[in-house]
Specification:
- The structure is a single chain.
- This protein has 127 residues and is of the alpha+beta class.
- It contains 5 helices and 6 strands; from the N terminus they run βββαααβββαα.
Length: 127
């Protein structure tokens, strides 16, 4: 599959027996099922092994938001994390997989005081 953000190749990555996802070789974005994402949030050190892209790269690709699902080829919905509203993701309305830019999973996993400030300054996601 091709990355919906940069066109790079999405390769399968695994962490333990329950976690498998696709990660872009170029921009390091993650394409993951919601149940796997929940498992990743609970598992120790998943961010260090799976979300290896620099957040600066992720912020650049965050600007690319009108994308198609690499699996279903339909337009993905623009979503935000309900707790950390500065984290902007895309979700497929058919397969429900989520695309996170580099650094977004690490940010999602750990809520900090700085995240509250980011939420204030980032504002609402444009439709």
């Amino acid at each position: 599959m091709d990355c919906p953000k940069c066109g790079g190749y999405l390769e399968t990555k695994a962490y333990g027996p329950k976690i498998s996802l696709e990660r872009c070789r170029e921009c390091f974005g993650l394409f993951v099922a919601p149940d796997v994402l929940m498992e990743m949030r609970e598992e120790w050190m998943t961010e260090a092994f799976l979300d290896i892209g620099h957040p600066k790269i992720g912020r650049e690709y965050d600007k690319v938001c009108d994308i198609r699902c690499p699996a279903c080829h339909v337009s993905m919905d623009k979503i935000v994390d309900p707790v950390q509203t500065h984290i902007w993701m895309e979700a497929c309305p058919q397969c429900e997989k989520i695309f996170l830019d580099a650094g977004e999973f690490s940010d999602l996993k750990y809520e900090t005081f700085m995240d509250k400030i980011k939420d204030l300054f980032r504002g609402k996601r444009p439709g």
